[in-house]
Amino acid sequence: SGGTMASESEAQRALQYEQTLMYGRYTQDLGTFAKDEAARLRLQEGDTPRPRRPSELLEYTQGRCGPCRVCALQCQRFLISKVGEDWVFLILLGLVMALVSWAMDFAIATCLQAQKWMYGGLDTNVLLQYMAWVTYPTVLITFSAGFTQILAPQAVGSGIPEMKTILRGVVLKEYLTLKTFVAKVIGLTCALGSGMPLGKEGPFVHIASMCAALLSRFLSLFGGFYENEARNIEMLAAACAVGVGCCFAAPIGGVLFSIEVTSTFFAVRNYWRGFFAATFSAFIFRVLAVWNKDEETITALFKTRFRLDFPFDLQELPAFAVIGIASGFGGALFVYLNRKIVQFMRRQKTINRFLMKKRLLFPALVTLIISTLTFPPGFGQFMAGQLTQKDTLVTLFDNQTWAKQGLSDEFEYLGILEAWRHPRSNIFITLVVFIVMKFWMSALATTIPVPCGAFMPVFVIGAAFGRLVGESMAAWFPDGIHTDSNIYRIVPGGYAVVGAAALSGAVTHTVSTAVIVFELTGQISHILPVMIAVILANAVAQSLQPSLYDSIIRIKKLPYLPELGWGHHEKYNVRVEDIMVRDIRYVTLNCKYRDLQQVLHSTKMKNLPLVESAESMILLGSIERTQVGALLSNQLSPHRRLLTLRQKVLSEDGHRLSDSSIRFQINTETSSGSPARPALRKPLKPALKRVPSSPADSPPAGTADHTGIALKSLFCANTSAEPTEAQAVAYPKAKRVRISIVEEMILGDKMTPAEILEWEEQQLDQLVDFSSAKIDPAPFQLVEHTSLHKTHTIFSLLGLDHAFVTSIGRLVGMVSLKELRKAIEGSLTGKGVKVRPPLASFRDSTASTTEADTTALRQLWDRHQHHHMPREAGPGGDDDD
Amino acid sequence: SGGTMASESEAQRALQYEQTLMYGRYTQDLGTFAKDEAARLRLQEGDTPRPRRPSELLEYTQGRCGPCRVCALQCQRFLISKVGEDWVFLILLGLVMALVSWAMDFAIATCLQAQKWMYGGLDTNVLLQYMAWVTYPTVLITFSAGFTQILAPQAVGSGIPEMKTILRGVVLKEYLTLKTFVAKVIGLTCALGSGMPLGKEGPFVHIASMCAALLSRFLSLFGGFYENEARNIEMLAAACAVGVGCCFAAPIGGVLFSIEVTSTFFAVRNYWRGFFAATFSAFIFRVLAVWNKDEETITALFKTRFRLDFPFDLQELPAFAVIGIASGFGGALFVYLNRKIVQFMRRQKTINRFLMKKRLLFPALVTLIISTLTFPPGFGQFMAGQLTQKDTLVTLFDNQTWAKQGLSDEFEYLGILEAWRHPRSNIFITLVVFIVMKFWMSALATTIPVPCGAFMPVFVIGAAFGRLVGESMAAWFPDGIHTDSNIYRIVPGGYAVVGAAALSGAVTHTVSTAVIVFELTGQISHILPVMIAVILANAVAQSLQPSLYDSIIRIKKLPYLPELGWGHHEKYNVRVEDIMVRDIRYVTLNCKYRDLQQVLHSTKMKNLPLVESAESMILLGSIERTQVGALLSNQLSPHRRLLTLRQKVLSEDGHRLSDSSIRFQINTETSSGSPARPALRKPLKPALKRVPSSPADSPPAGTADHTGIALKSLFCANTSAEPTEAQAVAYPKAKRVRISIVEEMILGDKMTPAEILEWEEQQLDQLVDFSSAKIDPAPFQLVEHTSLHKTHTIFSLLGLDHAFVTSIGRLVGMVSLKELRKAIEGSLTGKGVKVRPPLASFRDSTASTTEADTTALRQLWDRHQHHHMPREAGPGGDDDD
């Protein structure tokens, strides 16, 4: 005892495989060894790792233009090897997304122009005009809703909440498929083409992610591409940045916004990827506009031309702060309203039932109401109803002051600005009507089941609110505030920029909207007002409501972990022991099948802890519920019953049958999608690496008793940290079905029900053989003292959904996402009461819990002393310090 | 077996303390319980948690203006409770740092003006002018170096590498103290005041962090402030953002830059804090300039006035790309040069020995050389030597084109621009000379042992390089490139902006320099060129050299973890089993003291794994080396020898002595800095919470045999996840010293050396009693299959420096930072060879390792089967599937 362990374990292993020697060398000097190994492998590369290629080469070289073909092959191989590189992937992703974004913008612009053209062409008859104005969007939205519903209902909505969940490590089915991609792109184009107050940002994040997933699958056809969960998540994070970046031509803002809305912890190395892809994408997006002669050169999407020398006065800052605070309240109200509308629609059973039957009625109805209200000759004249979203923004960011100081005719409303003027009203009333109407319209429109986001509508409302404040300021201080000789008039357009950033920041709980507006307008001169307003808006909104995306996550009941707010000191003082579940079921190493059955009946946990014994409670690993079920069903399977029966009755025949059963197992296993031989299906992929190619890799020199273990080990292939759930589920089912068929076929059931029952009882009393089960050998462990803050950090960092709490190897409890969520919400919602950390006052001497540790350790120690070396159990009196 | 565990453990605990009941309630319904508890505690708040206050209140209320004072006290208490809030802290931090930054800028400007004034005043005599020009900076730099050396040598250099290390969780001593703060502020002011090519950005990150640490300590005097490691790290991260933000008045760039240079994984919730503090700080910093009448309103630091309508042509992009790529090479060269200079200075033993004696000679010498070369009437006339760094930047970002197209007299060099003109030279030569000279000067100057950064000098060089390319382009295309009717001339200032961002991005390996230049210049119109250049520069520089900060980290041998580059697929395929150390020493639960001694002699590991037994190898926890040493020295302590002696000789006296020994222990423990009663020293702090205040908290109803455990538990108080190393070290030492004194005092040694030896041998044969040792009950565990990529992620996420590798509870190896570093560098440095993942080709069928798992599990299972239930060891033949 107390010696070296490596010698022992190495000795065990040396008997089994050759690799052990390499491990030894490897740990000695990794750097040099790696280089040697690499050089050796490079030398061999032509032949050993890819056994099929040489033969191909051989064939070609025998032909006439052999050298040519060899060269072409080598080029091809070089290209293929490069295809897997990250930067190729990111460039392709950027390119594709820029094209998609540009094409969609083009299609949307065409749709909107068609509506304008119809509306303009029918100006002889108001009723016809109205019909055209209303029918056109209704048809488009209804088509969008129907198309999405039929093709892929997952494409509905923003997509950012789902991406947030996916990036946390949760697998959402069908969210990243080609079908959803098509549904989202076409649905979104139609929805935005209708002119409803909907946005394209959120859906673009989703589209970019789907694009990345599809591209990665496509590139993997060419091989050289390591499919890996961690890498996929990194690529998805970059894709989110691309989505925002190419939607607004805002690479920096895109990266930051996507980080803020989708991540809790962000790997700085991904940042790079995001920047690269988003910049490339934004570049291509804007270059397309130049090539299409829309623009002379690459500029911002909503370029402003505010003066540079004196953008704003210091004394205007309070007005900007007011915009920020009001936007904070407004943003919270928007989120609240949006949620209430969804909940109302769900709760009203009669409406609901009616709408469920006629799914397309709700979108059509909402579109009808909104487009009726914006009809320009009708109510729309009071709210600039004829402007599209883009035109509205352009006019709101306009450089001029609309409300003139006394001289009302000094300024001509030119071009699209005309829409804001009304002979019997003034600009303030128009703006207020616009804000109020658009506010509820946007909140309502974003609940329509079509692919749509809320960012852009909110952005427009914010800009209008900012403009309102700006115009008021301009009316209040006609000659500006500055006291020096120069007159610097107030620029209401600057206020509009500030308002847009503040309100969109408040709704999404992000600060990066500030960066987005700089990139959108191409001016950064208002940086301080924008930052102040955005921060104030965030502070207000975050203390009132969750972000729009978190709100949707809650509505959709996606698995989530709430953020820790700031200023909540309790979280540092609540500990795991306060929130953990102590009453958990577990599996012991020496338990019987009956115990497994009991455990399965008494708990719904997806992962069961495996402990050494009920006395020691030493945690050995965790085992999935499905695995326990498989163990049990395997033990009670008719197949085994058959075997027993056979063994009892036909003792000489038994040998043959058990042979066939082994062969049969191999069969089952190949059919249940084992990863061992996928080469047959994918000829392009150099998956041959996966086939045992060197002698060291093949199963150890075959003796009869090894075969069983080898087979099992194939089933256990996924004991790694990232198990694929699909396999775990697929295997027992496939096997069971097969077995029952085989059994019925060959034998028929020769046992009576009573006999079966008896046999099953007997089987249940046997000890469990875990060797065929998939065990996670290192489930995540926490200690009782770990603070809530740290637990939250670890859970969100590693994307855990449960962790076991241990004390010196002993299992004492478990914390899952549910407990953590409860604990955080418990400490967050109790705002009014100012929740004190429960039990915090009792804890500081830490005498209690540590004592428990000590006692536990002593127990363990005592047990060992008595078990292993009773001869040495000396007098307890001499070590009493 | 297989039942509920909570009932058992609860039964054990219920005997010991009352709290157990609460745990039960708590887990049932945490939310409501928390609220109840909070309400109850609020009711009690006046009296129980702060037992001293009520008596004070009582005294006051007895006086005349009692109500008044009660009110004042309540106000005070309210303020104190608010002081701990994050936002108060962040506002204070922002305010202080803005003041520091502004004051330093003011002092630096004064210093530089004094030099200019001296230089200008002495223009009658060139020699005197030269003396003044050279002496002034030499004196300042020498003073700065000497002052820093004497007060706090930790203040030398940038500080970003150290902050990166600290934010990784490593404790660097003396890096965040008041002394270092003073040394850094004064040293930096003098260094920058000398006009050497040094920067203030890096040191400002350090200054802000020190400011945060000091502020947090200061605020904790007022209480209401939970001191917590996690919180401190969060605050330090925010402080880094403030440092950059208030240095450049660039809040967004500051936040991003600080994230990129200090973090590997970034918590998005910190982002918020950083933005808040940095914005506030930048705001105050700029407002101070307005109040000081330096500026009319808040604008950018280096405001540019490029035209907005057509910032650049699409066809200029290749030129920007060239700037990016060249900057990438330049940046790598700068890092290389800087490192070589440091290494050269270290290697030259004779120079070194001489310089070590006269520490101030090196700074003086370097300053002398650099200032001689920049002397304006001398060589300085060819490199605009008379301009300060700030003036240089202002001129380089100038809006006009310097190299005129044919008409050389069309443009007048006005004001400070004059410096760039030379009658016998042209602007291209001047710029080239400037770039070349400044390049090596900056690389040399930043090795001087004064507080200084390299960002600003590099930024200036980059701007000059960009200007050079811009002027060349302007000379090449005198009428611009655009083919339409409008003539848009090329703007060389825009090239300077691009160059500055690209070169500083290349040296620091950051993308956020792009954002910093936008904020510095107040214009974002060149966003695409800047982004393209920065990304290309990064791509080139990252593939050639580490970042400047990582380079310094390596030179200084700080504990670090290299970044995973991108495009290295190997990292997904190298696994923990390839890099882990298998041959590790461990401590078993049933080992003897002799084994401990052996382990201590045979390994240098700081943390030793504690396993159940050498056969089972089940990992129970880890124990620090110092703890093992303490156990051993305690066992062999003269004190225990004494006790034995006493027990043998004076059996009736022994009782009294052991009593006194217990009393003595209590004494030792109080003196060794236990956290139990700090209230005596800090009267302002409501540390009384820490003292047992409610009956439930006091040690369980005192019986004699509990005392020992309680005492031990006090020593074990830090078994929590964040042990404070200082205590662990302090305790055994203090105790040992005390004991030997006491022993000598009372008894003198009555044993002969031979007897002592015999006694010690006897003692070493006893079983170890771990109950007094501090054991980390949940050290971090990895599995053999964990990929290098994931391991890196986990290590950098959680700031680990070692992790044990387990397989179904069994310890099989260990990975420390060293192995990980080796593995990453092994796969990174072998660039030319394109290192293949060693052993990757053997692994894919995963048969081998899993088999080992299965075998191990089977062993464990067999052992249990035989040990615990030999009655059931049925025939192994019937479960062979």
Q: Count the strands of chain A? A: 8
Architecture per CATH nomenclature, i.e. the level-2 architecture of the domain at 314-359 and 380-403 and 415-556 in chain A: Orthogonal Bundle
Euclidean distance between termini CA atoms of chain A: 25 Å
**Over all CA atoms, what is the radius of gyration of chain A?**
34 Å
Tally of contiguous helical segments of chain A: 36
Please outline what is shown here:
Chains A, B: Belongs to the chloride channel (TC 2.A.49) family. ClC-2/CLCN2 subfamily. 2 copies of one chain form a homodimer. Chain A is built from 36 helices and 8 strands.
Provide structural commentary.
The structure is a homodimer of 881-residue chains. With 881 residues, chain A is mainly alpha-helical. Among the domains of chain A are: 85-292, Orthogonal Bundle (Clc chloride channel), CATH 1.10.3080; 314-359 and 380-403 and 415-556, Clc chloride channel, CATH 1.10.3080.10; 569-638 and 754-830, CBS-domain (Roll). In chain A, 61% of the residues lie in helices and 4% in strands. In chain A, the strands form 2 sheets. In chain A, strands 2-3-4-5 form a 4-stranded mixed β-sheet. Chain A has a 3-stranded mixed β-sheet with strand order 6-7-8. In chain A, strand 3 and strand 4 form a beta hairpin. In chain A, helix 7 (126-151) runs antiparallel to helix 9. The first copy, chain A, is elongated and about 105 Å long. The two termini of chain A are 25 Å apart. Residues 1-35, 44-61, 405-410, 656-745, 828-854 and 867-881 of chain A have low confidence and may be disordered. The interface between A and B is large, with 227 and 228 residues.
